[in-house]
Amino acid sequence: MKILAPLRDWTEAAPLRAAGADELYCGLTPPGWEERFGRAWVHRRNPASAGLPGLEDLDRTVAAAGPVPVYVTLNAPFYPEGATPFLLDFARELVEARGVRGLIVADLGLVLALRQAGLAGRVHLSSLATCTNPGAAAFYRDLGVARVVLPRHLALAEIEACAAAGVEVEVFLLNDGCVFEEGLCATTHALGPFCLGDGEGAGGPEPGVRERYAFWKWTLNNCGCQTSRGFQLGPCGLCALPRLRDAGVASLKVVGREASLARKESSVRLAHEARRLALAGAGPERIREAVVALRGAPELCRGAHLCYYPDVWAVPEGEALAC
After folding, report:
1. Is the CB of residue 126 less than 8 Å from the CB of residue 149?
2. Using an 8 Å Cβ cutoff, are 270 and 241 in contact?
3. What is the rounded average pLDDT of the residues 159-183?
4. Which of 17, 113, 233, 302 has its CA 20 to 30 Å from the CA of residue 263?
5. How much is the pTM?
6. Which residues, in sequence order, are CB contacts of 65 under 8 Å at separation 6+?
7. What is the mean pLDDT of residues 245-256?
8. Residue 304 has pLDDT above 90, yes or no
9. Cα–Cα dist 10/251, whole Å
């Protein structure tokens, strides 16, 4: 299981490698994009706060990464008319002339264009493409994509079923939740992630339900803080590593391109330690103990509040949650 880490500046590549990252990913807007397509984003994340500034920075990133592969996102859920040929030329340049190992793509039209160009083997299907079952995983396997990034809302049994389809699988491991299933969400973050702030002041469910919903949104947004030890308090799948290992998951995604380097480094170090334990045969309880010892905030592990995969703590019906 490789640890995939985000970056937004080429100077972050070496520290992330030192922290334990096995793969790196970043966003980059093609030169001339804004002149042709205005403010439409090429990626899911804000290009101003989460993307590399230009091709020279990408070249420096690839050089600083050394043997560690670098992947570039082209994962907007859809594109303006005329954008696919433009992005296809850019994709060719990235993988044939810039040393980029692969492309993280969501739009099916762009996936098919890359396949026709003989580049399917360089495509990682973004979670925004919403591959949620083994039939979909087999479809993308047959298209020849190199990897499928599974949506963060899948249960462990669903991940295991998708992995059994015989396609390389990547899953979310740390940081940043999403209120909706992002691949099915028709909103755009270009106007801000208002899904994390909506609902206040409106009518609807009784107060207790609204308070629990507000608490859940707070955990998805990394609890708005980090511990005094420098670790982010966001969604976490570390205790599920033994099952992800057994399922044959290939890559573990640390989220947050726009985050500070300190947050990225601490997240990668935490993932590295948890993976070490999982590969040594540790179970979820031992991993949780180690994570809490490093990160602190044990109260957020009670009730599986931060869990990407709370089903790792599933117990027979009628018994209390073990977490």
Report:
1. yes
2. no
3. 89
4. 302
5. 0.86
6. 13, 17, 24
7. 96
8. no
9. 22
